[in-house]
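Structure ticket #2291
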Amino acid sequence: MAHERMLKSMRACFRVLAGSSEGGHVLDLDGVLASVVPAVPERSLPNSVVYESQESLVAALPELTRHYDDAGIDAWTVWTPEGDEHAVAALRDAGHKLDADPAAMTLHLSELSEPPDVDYRTGDDLLPVLASINDRAYGHDDGSFTRMLAEHPPGVGRNYVADVDGEAAACLLILPVDGDASVYWVATLPEARGRGLASRLLHRAIWDARDAGCDISTLQATKLGEPVYARLGYESHGALQMWEKRR
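Resolution: structure written out below.
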């Protein structure tokens, strides 16, 4: 059940993401949703596909390929739950390669302890700060996050920024979807790492989300991030493989 709620939140996230940059849109096929972000054609993350069944994905692959090619997208990815061997075989045959396998993680917010202190801010006006921190944290000198989030609609999700000596140093976004405080765009500037900023900021954010009525929180964790989230109480329920196709 938690896995299904996480996938529902991911579909909501990619719908928002598709409308957050110039020319972005959603391709809605039968049981398949694809975010198409021409403003960032070289990155597969904003150009993501999620699906409801392996059969629906396999049937949609030719149309997905045509649409991304016509939109000038150089890299796109399909998020595949661990164990979907039929989907994986079809993706391999279509030229996709395994790019990453983040952990699908869930935390039941009833188990959450009171958060530690952190100097933080929230607000719609902080989205450019989130984009800038992510670009710098992940070494995207091309400003891909800034391009990706340039037209993010206000009031969708809640932006959090942690400060060090009055300067923005870490960030994340909480997107509430039917009681799931789903977590995105977690990043810390290289010079501010090692202080537990992102962990404390996330603890505060999901505490606020619980107060606002959310009962779980889901996220997709990299290998480096997984132990950080585990210390907060998030539990892994398998990997989500990212099968990328790059021109």
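Closing remark: The helical segments are 2-18, 54-70, 85-93, 127-137, 144-148, 197-211, 226-232.
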